[in-house]
Amino acid sequence: MKIRKGDKVKVLAGKERGREGTVTRVLPGENRLIIERVNVAKKHLKPNNKVTQGGIIDKDMPISASNVQIICSADGPTRVGYKFNSDGVKVRVCKKCGGEL
Ligand SMILES: [Zn+2]
After folding, report:
1. How many whole angstroms from 62 Cα to the centroid of ligand 1?
2. 27: CATH
3. What are phi and psi of 67, to 5 degrees?
4. What angle do CA 88, 90, 93 make, to 5 degrees?
5. C-alpha 59 to ligand 1 mean position (Å)
6. Structural domain of residue 46, as residue ranges?
């Protein structure tokens, strides 16, 4: 998975296409991720032992990682490449401008 928690991403396909947000959670096993305020579902809760107050809450639902691209601060949504920096550490780079992500 090339995208990590905290990345700014743009949704390029699916019903949330065009939305941008910050990744709040990555689910590598499912190749899905959760983006803040994107793909929000209304959940209807009934009061029970855990939830004392019923009602409707907004819940961010995971979307497929293949539908999103990371946003490069220089040139927008981009594909991710890898390189080794001067310290020999593998870093992610923007495939458009070559800058580190
Ligand atoms: Zn770039």
Report:
1. 26
2. 2.30.30.30
3. -95, 0
4. 125
5. 31
6. 8-72
Q: Dig out the tokens for 50 from the structure.
A: 């855990």
**Separation of alpha carbons 93 and 13, rounded Å:** 22
Q: Is the pTM of this model over 0.70?
A: yes
Residue 10 contacts residue 76 (beta carbons within 8 Å):
yes
pLDDT in tens, 1-30: 899 999 999 999 999 999 999 999 999 999
Whether 58 is in a domain gets the answer yes
Ligand 1 centroid – CA 12 distance (Å): 17
Task: Tell how far the Cα of 1 is from the centroid of ligand 1, in angstroms.
Answer: 19
What separation in Å is there between the alpha carbon of 71 and the centre of ligand 1? 8
